[in-house]
Design brief:
single chain, mainly alpha
Amino acid sequence: MKEKLLLTRKNTGKRGDDGYKTFSVRMRSETVDELERLAARTDRSRNELICTLIEWALDNTEIND
């Protein structure tokens, strides 16, 4: 069974200089549309959602050599 990421309502904590770096990525329009829908449903910014999803993917990636 495929494991899913659980998203809860947005944490309204303080924002500021938090060690993040900015960079650009290219994504398919359909993927961006899906991210926008998920961001709206979870009351998160698209950026926050992308970071959460990438962190989850990194924690749940296994490389078979």
